[in-house]
Each structure stands twice: as C-alpha cells, then as structure tokens.
Amino acid sequence: MGFFAAKLDELNKRIRVGAVSYLNTRPLLFGLKRSGLMDRIELIEEYPARIAAMLLNDEIDVGLVPVAIIPLLKESHIITDYCIGAVSEVASVALFSEVSVEEVTKVLLDYQSRTSVNLAKILLKEYWKKEVILEDAKEDFRSQIKGTTAGIVIGDRALEQRKTSKYTYDLASAWIDHTGLPFVFAAWVANKPLGEDFEDAFNRANGYGVSHINEVVSEINYDGYDLTKYYTENISYRLDEEKRKGLALFLEKLGNR
Hints:
single chain; 2 domains; alpha/beta; 24% strand; 11 strands; D-Maltodextrin-Binding Protein, domain 2
C-alpha cells in the first residue's frame, strides 16, 4: 500500500501541462515528447477553450492557451520563447462565407477559441467596419455557413473549410494589415512559477521541435494541406519582440472593448 501511495504522490507532483490538440501544435509537442521532461509532466491535449478553462480553474499548471485568457488569470507567466503566431496568412483561422464580407449579416463564432472570437469581433468593428449579428456556435456549425451567414472557423477544421467556402478572410492577414504588427494566437502560459530549470528545459524542448519540421511532417498522415508550408510559412513559432508588441496591442484592445 505504501508503494502505491508513493507512486500516487509522485504523479501528483508532476507538472500538469495542457496543450492544444491541433496540427499547429505538433512541432512544439514533437520536441516536448522527445525531451526528458515527459517523466516530470502530465500531458493533457484538448481544444483551446478547454485548455484555457483548465488553466483558469487550476486543473493544469501551464497550458498552450489562447492569449485572450491572460487578463482573466490571477497570476500569469509566459514561460517560453515560442508561440502559435503569424507574420502573414495563418491559413487556419478565418472568416468563411458564401458571399463577400460586405454582404455578410450574421457571423457564427467558433466555440473552440476565445482569442480567435475576440480577434474577429475587433476586426469586424475596426477593420471591416461591419455591424453584424454575432452568434456563439455549437458543434458541427459549419453546415450553417451559407447565404449571408458567415462563420469563424479555426484549427484543422479551418484548413478543411478552405476547400468548401467561396470566400476566405484570413484573420491574421487582416490584423497585420490593420495594425502593422504580427499576431499571437496562443502561448505557453503558467498560472504559477514553475522553476527556472523546468522552464529552461521546456523552452529548449520547444526549440528542438521547431528546428525539426521535416521530421514532424514525416510522422503525420494528413493530405488536407501542405504541412511543410503550414509550419514554415503560415505559423510563425518564435515569440519575438514584434510578436510581443502585437500581443500587447491585442490585449489592450481587448481591455477597451
């Protein structure tokens, strides 16, 4: 009994890590899963909004979360130099419709990411200058994208939606055109200090994955989009100074809404 109690105690001491279960996170997880950290963490993969809720509720210690969650946390620490960002078209976060944005009257909002939804609201108001009906969408809402009803779709489903919708308005491209700054969709955020040694090892694990894109792609059976292009041209993983400026501006706009 003592042995199992000790093992349970050991598990409970593991750092709980939440990650988004999308294609765009695969390079970051590739490095993490090949690092020595897997013995020290408990890894949970879910969609963005779920990971964000878990971080808010202290069900995980660190998560690759939509950045819109940061102001809601009592304590927040961005612990790596890597993120899910974009310096041009991101491809997997967009407004999709059968008609031009000028003709759109209603927008369905993807339930999977708070950041993308808030970005869409900011762009509709400031960039497209559109007043539309906004509706929180449920699962399987893409079939409702028709007529003058558009939809914000994110992640792997957005890559699929690109093949069916007549109009695709990339949210990262619109943000960059509007502000002149790159956009950060998600970052590794902790709700407590995790220790310098762990954070350094975690950062290096992220870097390993990002520097081995060819190996990442070779492990994925997916023909819906060119993943090499996705990982090297659409997603920009380095959380550099320009992205931090873009992130600060987004959070400022979020606070003013």
